[in-house]
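INTERNAL AUDIT FORM
Audit reference: QA-55
Scope: verify that the stored structure record matches its stored sequence.
Auditor: D.O.
Record contents follow.
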Amino acid sequence: MFDRIKKAFGKGASQHARPGGRADASEDNSPASRWANTQGFGFSSQADGRGLALDGKVAGKPWRMQVGPSSRKYIIGQELLARADLKLNEDVSVLVISRPLKESLEKVAYEMYTDPLQTQMDPNLPEEMRWLAMFDEVVWETLPLPFWDRYAVLSDNRENAMTWLDPVLSEGLLNWPKGGPTAEVPFLLLLLRGKAYLRMEYMPPELTTLQHAAQIFTGACESALDGFSA
């Protein structure tokens, strides 16, 4: 399923020691480090074992994925975050969000809107709240019903969403490894301002979750480059 994605995995990212208490990948013999080496990814980890980072390239564009402390209230424990500046057409905005997370954020927004004591928006609210207000949910029949049960897709252009969520990417989003993240695990995949992002709760905190998240993200980057290069 991911043959096309694997061809996009970049080689040659640095694996040397990084500042900030990171362990040298050459001295790290963890399963994650060994796997990253087989993929040609750069790898670094916190000396205390509480975080790690991967670096690679898709079609010459660098991406980075990190696991570390959560920066969102809706993510419990560790957060997995990925980012790539793909230099895409900046008019393209598409968000894939786990449906339980969407409903939870909408509930928070509604409670704030109807609270008579709430006179202004909380500046500490995550930008995800703005995306829910800015974009409309879009659907189409070629994706299976289980996909729509698990995710919502929001965009200002339905055709852009359909172009990005090609069969390989949508299948990867739906078919996590056995024992992997459930539908309740907070998850977001986003194209915005020419960049691609992935944010999710790192649950279960296992190598298979990291591997599949990397496959999804690199596949999302490749599909976006195929469809929306500036």
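Auditor finding: record pair retrieved intact. The chain has one domain: 3-228.
Action required: none
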